[in-house]
Design a protein that fits this description.
By secondary structure, this protein is an alpha/beta fold. The protein has 20 helices and 27 strands. Helix 10 packs parallel to helix 14. The longest helix has 23 residues.
Length: 622
């Protein structure tokens, strides 16, 4: 969701900012711009559309206009105001002396705007960001503050909402001021220079030293090398903590693949090895993140009467699989909630509940808000996130990191299987401690998990055969995904993936629900994807009947089945066979061909799966 870059040092800022913006493209955007700050001037360059347009625009400018050694940049994903050049960032104050880039949403911008209009300010854009930069200037010019950074701090005290921002003043070209509240922002510390980014991607090849801003903090960075960290609400000076990152430049590059999405699909065998390494031990499961709990809290976790999982999007589908798994091996009631709805209800949460938040970025606004609500009610909170030091990781009582590496593709792939693996390990750890599972079954499931990377590798070796199955989607704009038991959440995830990147209207349903309405959508030639592996007993008979019902109405069936299942293969028009595996663990395998199908359908339609329209990688605003 939007992207911020900043630089101050002794090098030309323009190429550094452009490179940084390119590395943030995966977050989703509709316009881009930079501001270059030199003595007594701020030069703004922005364009609607992709960064290539901005780059071409800059090539036409005079070299002297691009010689500044400090600047800020932004990729915008519209929230307030339509995508346009005028609404693109950076925005300037009424006088043009101040420039700002901002992620997030200023919730009280309308109240502030009315007050500023009464004072004679005339707005040029439809954005909440322009209101903020006008407010900063108004305070700086009309109050008795002694410095520009104090004007910024006082303005932010009047703001309600989430933000990450960088602001500059033309009379202070050697200073950048950055602030954060509810939206991620990092400072890279180099040799005689500073970098700013919404994440580390813009500067990972230049420095591994990072300051992670916390909520309610602002930092003043100067070309001289000095830095001052302040608490926005108290003006208290803090000592910034500088840490070393493990991220490498190779992890955020395509490595020879045409798109990040396919690269990350093929990374999954190695990724799951990394997720499990050191955690699946010879005598069981060890999750260091849960070991940070006090004895009292760990006992509370083991004796929980209910587990509530809050998440959004793909992470919510992970939660559904975990619900099935946890209830089967823990005998605990599990509820899976859309975080975006949970926070606006009046949910009944008790001190004997455990709330697990799942989020790849660890910054999902609704999930973070739901988590904070749960803490107020006294629930024990756990986080399952990928990004170390993210907001959810810091708010929860404990948690487990995914360790899948940066996920650049907007459509989540390796994060989903990483989340599933972590949730399986959490469930098994608790089941063993609670003695709610037999030692034999525990060992069987641990063994199944260990074998998953190799079995995923088997599926990926057949990717060319899987690619052939997408012919049933040719010239089709509607499809259904069906599954039973553990196949149902996978059907939802498969439908989400294909709609995200190919724009085919897709719906996922429990197979039995097809007769309660969705069957009316089926006409001749409609693709229906059925997740039907490892189905036995009466459920097998039922799903065969569902397939027959769909075929009788002209559907083309793509069956995801267990290798060697001849009867289900005969029922399918095309089929994808996967290695045999315990049904509870099967989502780790059944989702792989659905990811590949979504990718190949998108590419076949001439679409870029890394940049699906209207989507952002992480939703850090409501």
């Amino acid at each position: 969701m939007c992207g911020i870059v900043g630089y101050i040092g002794n090098k030309k800022a323009e190429p550094i900012l452009l490179q940084g913006l390119k590395r943030l493209e995966y977050r989703g955007y509709d316009s881009a711009g930079i501001a270059l700050i030199s003595a007594n001037s701020i030069n703004i360059f922005k364009q609607k559309g992709d960064i290539k347009k901005l780059e071409s625009f800059l090539k036409k400018k005079k070299k002297k206009d691009l010689s500044a050694t400090s600047g800020i940049g932004h990729t915008r994903w519209a929230t307030h105001g339509e995508p346009s050049e005028v609404n693109a960032h950076p925005h300037t104050s009424a006088s043009g002396d101040i420039a700002i880039v901002h992620n997030g949403t200023i919730e009280n911008y309308d109240v502030l705007k009315i007050e500023l209009q009464k004072r004679g300010y005339k707005f040029r854009t439809d954005t909440d960001t322009e209101v903020l930069v006008f407010l900063i200037e108004d305070i700086f010019l009309k109050s008795k503050v002694k410095s520009f950074d104090q004007a910024v701090r006082l303005a932010l005290k009047e703001v309600v909402g989430a933000y990450a921002l960088v602001v500059v003043h033309k009379d202070n070209p050697d200073t950048l001021i950055a602030a954060r509240n509810g939206s991620p922002l990092l400072v890279g510390v180099g040799e005689g220079e500073y970098f700013i980014g919404s994440d580390a991607a813009p500067f990972i090849d230049r420095t591994k030293k990072v300051i992670e801003l916390n909520d309610n903090e602002m930092i003043i960075l100067e070309k001289s090398g000095s830095k001052k960290l302040l608490k926005i609400d108290s003006n208290k000076i803090e000592n910034p903590y500088i840490q070393e990152m493990e991220l490498s430049i190779e992890q955020i590059e395509k490595g020879g693949y045409p798109h990040f999405m396919i690269k990350e699909i093929f990374e999954q065998p190695k990724v799951l090895d990394d997720v499990m390494r050191g955690r699946l031990t010879s005598d069981g499961i060890r999750l260091g993140g849960l070991e940070t709990l006090s004895k009292k809290d760990f006992k509370k976790l083991l004796k929980a009467k209910r587990i509530i999982i809050v998440a959004c999007g793909t992470s919510w589908h992970t939660g559904l699989v975990a619900e099935y798994f946890f209830e089967s091996i823990l005998s605990i009631s599990v509820e899976v909630e859309y975080a975006s709805e949970f926070r606006y209800r009046e949910p009944v949460i008790g001190s004997d509940d455990v709330v697990i938040a799942i989020s790849q970025s660890g910054e999902t606004a609704d999930t973070l808000a739901a988590l904070k609500m749960a803490k107020k009610h006294g629930a024990l909170t756990l986080g399952v996130v990928n990004v170390v030091g993210s907001s959810i990781a810091r708010v929860t009582d404990a948690g487990v990191y995914l360790r899948v590496g940066p996920e650049i593709g907007v459509a989540s792939t390796k994060a989903f299987t990483g989340q599933l693996t972590v949730m399986y390990m959490i469930g098994l750890l608790l089941a063993k401690e609670r003695k709610s599972i037999s030692i034999k079954k525990f060992k069987e499931l641990v063994k199944e998990l260990r074998l998953m990377p190799g079995k995923i590798e088997e599926i990926l070796k057949d990717h060319k055969e899987i690619k052939k199955t997408v012919k049933i989607f040719k010239n089709k704009n509607h499809t259904l995904y069906l599954g039973r038991r553990y196949g149902f959440p996978v059907a939802l995830e498969g439908a989400l993936k294909i709609k995200e990147v190919s724009y085919i209207h897709a719906e996922g349903f429990p197979a039995a629900e097809m007769k309660h309405g969705p069957i009316a959508l089926i006409d001749k030639g409609m693709p229906v994807v059925v997740v039907a592996n490892r189905i036995s007993g009466i459920a097998r008979d039922k799903i065969k009947a569902n397939i027959e019902e769909a075929k009788a109405r002209g559907a083309k069936i793509l069956g995801v089945i267990t290798r060697g299942d001849s009867s289900l293969k005969e029922l399918s028009d095309v089929s994808i066979e996967i290695p045999d595996v315990d049904e509870a663990i099967s989502p780790l395998l059944t989702v792989i061909p659905l990811q590949l199908i979504a990718y190949y359908v998108a590419v076949g339609r001439g679409l870029d799966p890394d940049k699906p329209r209207n989507l952002a990688k992480s939703v850090t605003v409501e």
